[in-house]
Write the structure tokens for this entry.
Amino acid sequence: MDVKIFLRAYSQGDRNFQAVILHGIDLSNCNLSGIDLSRADLSGANLSNANLSRANLKYANLAGADISHADLSGAHLESVNLIGAVLDGAKLVGSNLTRADLRTADVEGADLRGANLTEADISGANFRRVDLASACLEGVDLEGVDLEGTDISQILSRAEQESAGVSREWVSWGAHEVTG
């Protein structure tokens, strides 16, 4: 899909872009809050500095994508392919990354406070200086992951999150303007 057609459709209120092929597209600095890109192919895409808060990216292919400094707060990223993706400085507060594939991803300096990474594969990933406060990493193997400068003492189990009243429900979307 052509980037101009895509952005025009989004600006006119369309939020459903399930299974769309956007391989290598440049959507840097775009506001795509609340978009549904589930099962989409965004491999190699440039999403740096994009606003993807509350986006649905479930089962999407983001392998090798540049998602640095993007806002993915409250995003639904269950079973997403982020192999080799660059997420340095990204904001993933409260995001659902259950069973996400983050092998060899660069997540340095990202904000994952309250994120759910249950059963995510982060082998070989760079998790240096990542904020994991109140994050759930149940079933995640941290062996071989670069955690230099990352405080893992505040990671919570799913039971601890539930008893603290932390919701894992995905936030519904609203109408948003496209910018960028």
Observations:
- The CA atoms of residues 28 and 47 lie 4 Å apart.
- Residues 168-180 have pLDDT under 50 and may be disordered.
- The chain has one domain: 1-180.
